[in-house]
Amino acid sequence: MPRSLRISLYVLASLAGLIVLVALLFQWNWLKAPIEARLGRATGKQVKIVGDVHGEWHWHPRIVFDDVQISEPDWQGNGTKVGQIEHTEIVVSVPALFRGALELPEIKLIKPELALVRHADGSANWTLDLPDDNSGSGPKIGNLQIEHGKLALQDALKKIGIESQVQTVNDKDGNGRIRITGHGTYKDAKFELKFEGGSVLNLRDTTQPYKVNVDAVAGRTHLTAVGTVIDPVQMAGLNLLTTLEGENAADLFPIAGIAAPDTPPYKLTGTLLRKGKIFTFQKFDGTVGDSDLQGTLQFDAGRERMLISGNLHSKQLKLKDLGLVVGAPAGTTSRRGTNTEQRVVAERFRNSDRVLPDAPLDFARIRSVDADVTLKAQTLEAPGLPLEDLDLGIKLDNSLLGLKPLKVGVAGGRAEGGIVIDARQDRVKTEYDLRLRGFKFEEILRRAGVPGHGDGTINGRIQLVGTGNSIRRSLGNADGQISAVMEGGRLSSLATELVGLDIAEAIGFAITGDKTYPMRCAVADFNVRDGIMDPRALVIDTTDTLIVGQGDISLRREALDLRIEANPKDVSPLTVRTPITIGGTFKYPAIGVDPKPLLIKGGIAAVLSVVLTPVGAALAFVDPGEGAQDSDCRGMINEANTRMTPAAQDATKQATPKPQGSPRTGTGSSTPVKPDKHSQPRH
Prior knowledge:
Elements: H1 3-25, H2 32-43, E1 46-49, E2 53-54, E3 62-71, H3 74-77, E4 81-91, H4 94-98, E5 103-118, E6 140-147, E7 149-155, E8 160-170, E9 176-186, E10 189-197, E11 210-218, E12 221-229, E13 239-246, H5 252-256, E14 266-275, E15 278-288, E16 291-300, E17 306-314, E18 317-318, H6 323-326, H7 340-350, H8 363-366, E19 369-377, E20 380-381, E21 387-397, E22 400-410, E23 413-422, E24 429-440, H9 441-447, E25 454-467, H10 471-476, E26 479-492, H11 493-499, H12 503-512, E27 516-529, E28 532-542, E29 545-554, E30 559-568, E31 580-584, E32 589-593, H13 603-622, H14 632-643, H15 646-653, E33 669-672
Parallel strand pairs: 5-6, 5-7, 17-19, 18-20
Antiparallel strand pairs: 1-3, 2-3, 3-4, 4-5, 7-8, 8-9, 9-10, 10-11, 11-12, 12-13, 13-14, 14-15, 15-16, 16-17, 19-21, 21-22, 22-23, 23-24, 24-25, 25-26, 26-27, 27-28, 28-29, 29-30, 30-31, 31-32, 32-33
Helix pairs in contact: 11-12, 13-14, 13-15
């Protein structure tokens, strides 16, 4: 036998003998210290194997050990317990060890438990304190199985308290997918979670999409999401088909810091994306109350204040679904049901004698974000109101909220302008500036249930400034001007004769049929001071009758105090010429007759001359310049000036007393107009 062969056989025999000797003398518990040290370096925690270590000799031996305790290092957390594992099995590839690599074809954990805690100062026990030389690749793991795992999370910083069950389930390819079900609280709201993702092992690879399926409920908000995440730990690279639904979108503020307005129940489905600190809810579609809503919203969380931007649009937007934003009655009937806020607002409206919205501004929400959002509605639906469409820009910059451009289709025309709310100080200031163009009088009458009693085109302007953290409060002390002008229309003779109480002609029209007279000019011009609307000009001039109004309207008390007096231009033996009083409140107006009619000396010319100057001022305010010299109202002024007699000129110099018998003074006869069942809010 060659010498080299004898040496080789000798070495092999010695090696075999050594292996047999080691196998006979080897104690598996000798592996405790190396395993504890390896796991400690991998996690930055203190790992202790309390039970015995068992194993079997094989090219792929299975090492089994029980009762693993995981704690904070003594120097960091005084040995505070982080978790434990009741039973652990690890399969090791011996051939891989000969190649200098650590491969674990299988890891099985039975009843692992983790108790993760983060304190209010931001310190957390799940922070990994890894050594600087940990840059090398970790062990290659084939299959990870978890049975009856538990995960508890207490996060004082984000106000989260969750207890969950964790286990793996094998898919059709034998891969172990992670499944988590949990419950607890999130920012004082009840929280439930169902999560299913790819293999836990894939969490280490932040270059490949990780499949997830999430179903979470926080309070009254429900979220489902299916798709992929590049880095689940950092929530980076989101691409999730997401459905978000809830009772009120305002609930998103305490949950996610998104300052959404109060809404009826909603459901929206779209794609949730993330790039850096920018989240995008893309091409969503759904409903808010009984209104449809589509669009894209972007949330930039990388700023001092989150910036919400995007475009929203609706084919049919119902005004009742916007009511909660300002505290108006939002209705209590809906295909999607109603929430508590809607029912409270509706009940409060039923029990109140007020109608102006009074929802206070939420300073916490409005000061937490900036916004640049547009909202367009093809149809704006409001029963009884001649609204048509909406085009609104919402810009919020450091608590300065601008609702402009604000364009609303009304009765064949448009209301255009804007509202600016300055909430940078606790004393909120609101500026209203709206121009009313091309309103069709006949459409207003039709929506009010009295079609065919007139037509014409109305233009106007509203310019007010008030303070207060709600619409009612800001209007209650507002200063400014409100004016409306109608020219070139027609007015029902029955209406004008009834206002003037010309009984003979009214009865005749009722028998033979109504007819209309050309209306030269109608002007309603109010000077507003401290919430009181004082009519500088309240005039309707037809070829048959001159109607003049006096008094005031209180926006603060929502009270009416007006007297309407008709001055017929024809002669009728039964013309009473008794003024009509309009009193009561916005919600319950009262119509009455003034028992003490006041006649202005000098006839029609004298009455008309009193209002010529304010009518001219109203024309300049509503539409300065264009067509003012050729308008019917301007023609009425010029004609009256040329025909005014000296006696009439003297009459215009006399002070006109305030009307008597108004609801404010308590005299006169007033008949309240009680709402019928159709005017009451629905239950």
